[in-house]
Specification:
By secondary structure, the chain is an alpha/beta fold. It folds into two domains: 341 residues, Metal-dependent hydrolases (TIM Barrel), CATH 3.20.20.140; 102 residues, Orthogonal Bundle (uronate isomerase, domain 2, chain A), CATH 1.10.2020. The protein is 49% helix and 7% strand. It has 20 helices and eleven strands. It has a four-stranded parallel sheet with strand order 6-7-10-11, with helices on one face.
């Protein structure tokens, strides 16, 4: 078996001139601290600071990128130990789950998941062989032994990864107890919350009314009017901000924005409380709440993130058995020029407002998003995201937006991950792809090597820190 080693020039262009420039650029940014402003890591792991349970729980269970690929090849979710929500019995033996994963590791060849996993195994855990069905037990034992050593406790890995700040994503009703405990512990790791109000702003959510009732209990009063509802959201934003929050996050079906009158908003809100709202009501209410959230951002300074265009839970069988975030979300067509017009016309010129817009619809990059961000001071472009967080996806993003929006209307990179140990792998890939893109510009004498190095430093560290107010 050939040694498992990552090539130092991986992902760089085969052209020797470009590759040499890419190497020089990357050498200047590879050791910069990691800023992770948008993610889904459970903050509780830093409270307990206990060893991760086992390799299967660490790598497979939390990562929908992995089990969606395995499921697509006919491997049942229960065989992978994915927890069910309806009592379906699932595999409990982590070694069996790992062996199944190892037998099918070849499925990830050429994919971002495969690239991240190779980095995690080689760099984070020092594994010297590529995982397969034959060496599955050996590698499981090697990783498991390391997981039970002090060097691989969550807080130590946080420091080893050189993470300067890690933002989680939290429901508007969350107590943020784990964030409080982290702050009270005296540990220097900076883990901050992000305000995600979708559960109480999306009327189409079947749990919306119960979520409003929960919001009322959290705030200490009944929410029986739209005015009280807005008050509650403002109070929760303030609570989040006091615990270090710098941003909000809105995973909307559509980027449609539209301001209702107070009476119109109240009417729809009351219909929602009575269970009488329809799809049109839900669309209008979300559109209005995006406007409200923009207004609140100007007042409290929280940066607004908008990421539309995902058809959530496309597979009803998986949703019914396993719930949300199980790899069945599918990208959709999105339109931004008309849908964001009201929000940008009202708030896009305001010096105290920042809206970071993400998309899963790459066709909008050069046609809509780059021109909008290249004009409105408040709008910035989020990085290539989710399905496009990849070698070609990140390259296409830079190719399609740079000439119109430049580099400085983008916000660097975020990893958007639940899989904690994948964070350095994802940032390494992003840094290499940006280095390679900039190297191509240097090779064609569009920018100088000194300019490329400065841009790379800004894309890696300075822009994300500035835009997210970190």
């Amino acid at each position: 078996m050939s040694p498992f080693e990552l090539h130092p020039d991986r992902f760089f262009d085969s052209d020797t001139v470009i590759r040499a420039y890419a190497r020089e650029i990357f050498d200047n940014i590879k050791s910069l601290p990691i800023i992770s402003p948008h993610g889904h890591v459970d903050p509780g792991i830093f409270v307990d600071n206990k060893p991760f349970e086992n390799p299967s729980q660490l790598f497979i269970t939390p990562d929908h990128y992995l089990f969606r690929m395995l499921y697509s090849q006919g491997i049942p979710m229960e065989a992978l130990g994915i927890p069910s929500i309806n009592g379906t019995k699932v595999e409990k033996d982590p070694r069996k789950i790992w062996k199944l994963f190892a037998d099918n590791y070849y499925l990830f060849l050429g994919t971002p998941s495969g690239i991240w996993l190779n980095h995690e195994f080689s760099v984070v855990f020092g594994i010297k062989e590529k995982l397969n069905g034959v060496n599955a037990d050996k590698i499981y034992d090697e990783i498991n032994e390391k997981l039970n050593s002090p060097e691989y406790l969550p807080r130590r890995l946080f420091e080893k990864f050189k993470i300067e700040v890690l933002s989680t994503t939290d429901a508007s009703t969350d107590s943020l107890d784990n964030h409080k405990k982290i702050k009270e512990s005296g540990w220097n790791g900076r883990v901050i919350p992000c305000f995600r109000p979708d559960a109480v702003t999306d009327l189409s959510n079947s749990s919306w009314k119960s979520n409003i009732e929960l919001l009322g209990r959290v705030c200490g009063y009944e929410i029986s009017s739209f005015k009280k509802y807005v008050q509650a959201l403002e109070e929760r934003r303030s609570f989040f901000k006091n615990l270090g929050c710098t941003s909000t996050d809105h995973g909307v079906f559509s980027p449609y924005t539209h301001e209702l009158s107070i009476s119109e908003a109240e009417k729809i809100f009351q219909k929602g409380l009575k269970g009488e709202s329809n799809n049109e009501d839900a669309e209008l209410f979300t559109a209005h709440m995006l406007m409200e959230m923009a207004r609140m951002s100007i007042e409290d300074g929280l940066v607004m993130q908008i990421h539309p265009g995902s058809y959530r839970n496309h597979n009803p069988v998986i949703f019914a058995n396993y719930g949300t975030d199980k790899g069945a979300d599918i990208p959709m067509h999105a339109e931004f020029t008309f849908n964001l017009k009201e929000l940008l016309n009202k708030y896009g010129n305001h010096p105290d407002f920042t809206a970071i817009v993400f998309t899963l619809d790459e066709s909008t990059y050069s046609r809509e998003l780059a021109p909008l961000a290249g004009h409105y001071p408040a709008m910035k472009l989020g990085p290539s995201w989710w399905f496009h967080d990849s070698i070609e996806g990140m390259t296409r993003f830079r190719q399609m937006v740079t000439e119109t929006a430049g580099f400085y209307n983008t916000v660097g990179f975020n990893d958007d991950t639940r899989a904690f140990v994948s964070i350095p792998a994802r940032h390494d890939l992003a840094r290499r792809i940006d280095s390679n893109f900039l190297a191509g510009l240097v090779a064609r004498h569009i920018i100088s090597i000194d300019e490329a190095i400065k841009i790379a430093e800004d894309l890696t560290y300075n822009l994300v820190k500035k835009t997210y107010k970190l």
